[in-house]
Design brief:
Helix content: under 10%
Order of helices and strands: EEEEEEEEEEE
Radius of gyration: 13 Å
Number of helices: 0
Length: 124
């Protein structure tokens, strides 16, 4: 059974930084990984994706230059470093493991397994 567990969500002030993590079991970590977010009353949106090796990354325009996705395959963990946070970044952040043939993808349908999410709140 694939399990993904997010952590690190918190309440921060605008302009601040936060790093969220996603720990995965070994089987799920053999795939590309992604981060998505969902604000209250809105659809789940793509944030960032990283290939199995970490050599390829993809970002939503709204976070490009502010967020950085990375992974440590030895620790089965993927990270999302968030800098220059804005109130509009407030959401539940979910990590996801992609289907085996995916390199990186912004499409939620490309991901097979999902964590339960971690809340990030940015106050102005």
């Amino acid at each position: 059974q694939v399990q993904l567990v997010e952590s690190g969500g918190a309440s921060v002030w605008a302009g601040g930084s936060l790093r969220v993590s996603c720990a995965a079991n070994a089987r799920s970590f053999s795939y590309a990984m992604g981060w998505f977010r969902q604000a209250p009353g809105k659809d789940r949106d793509f944030v960032a994706s990283i290939s199995r090796s970490g050599g390829s990354t993809l970002y939503a325009d709204s976070v490009k230059g502010r967020f950085t996705i990375s992974r440590d395959n030895a620790k089965n963990t993927v990270y999302l470093q968030m800098d220059s946070l804005k109130p509009e970044d407030t959401a539940v952040y979910y990590c996801a493991a992609a289907r085996p043939w995916i390199l990186t993808s912004p499409q939620a349908s490309s991901y097979e397994y999902w964590g339960r999410g971690t809340q990030v709140t940015v106050s102005s």
